[in-house]
Amino acid sequence: MRLGLALGYWGRGPDPGHVTLAQEAERLGYHSVWTAEAWGSDAFTPLTWIAAQTSRIRLGTAVVQMAARSPVTTAMHALTLDHLSGGRMMLGLGLSGPQVVEGWYGRPFPRSPLTATREYVDVIRQVLRREGPVELDGRFHAHPYRGEDGTGLGKPLKPITHPLRPDLPILLGAEGPKNIAQTTRIADGWLPLYWSPTRTDAYEASLTGLGEGFLIAPMARAKVCDDVAEGLLPVKAMLGFYIGGMGHAARNFHADLMARMGYEEEARRIQELFLAGRRQEAVLAVPDAFADEISLVGPRARIAERLELWRKGPVTDLLVLAPDPLTLRTLAELNS
Hints:
Order of helices and strands: EHEHEEHEHHEEEHEEEHHHHEHEH
Helix content: 40-55%
Distance between the termini: 9 Å
CATH architecture of the largest domain: Alpha-Beta Barrel
């Protein structure tokens, strides 16, 4: 199991320590570093900044949102950064949810998410392979565009720039069972939002018949500390926000995932509290047990014991949200 450093997306502003953490991760032998986006900073620009100040570590997005860019635009970003970094790019994509897609990007959330995702990946593959002009008579992505409001003058094109790697890895941040199953067929890897090494059966039906080299790269908060309860507070804060606020009461993919993992009653309670404006109570309502099983928090010996559970399962890359060099170094030593 390889280690990756997950930096997430910016909050109020850029974190001045991200480049230093990425450089330390590279020095410690981490395989990859990953950036993200929500409705503030984008994922590609910080990753390019990090690429310019590192030399070996792989560069991933976990994730860039499909609604933010057309598939050819995303492909252009990926092939450009792949060239500039010497072939270190790994492209992680996510569909997001209706609240973000329609509220922030001002676009309709696709009524058939599986089809929209499949078409998006198809177009990116065509760009990267550069075997001919990009053509797709898709329901959501048509190349060239043939809508009634178009001119009819669109011409199929292939990229001027020759991609460095036609097989640049594409990973998908899928949550629903059908979306995960499709991911195993059309992508090179899967980016689980929550992963519990003791509940791998929650995904078992969707992960049958994996191809050779398929990546499973979940994200987990990590913190070396003496007080486990205190160390779990950032995990609970994240869960409270995602499960309570990243979606509608009737349609929240994160809450549905928590429910499928055995915490349905707790997930609905977190939603109720968060949507009622009782955010601190929502955070406190996150079960310590759930926060603990999807993270690596506590003294070194405890983390070492729990890390073995992750290593025994199908995870190929553990992407750690590690806020300090001590935690990065400890995980590197324990995983060596």
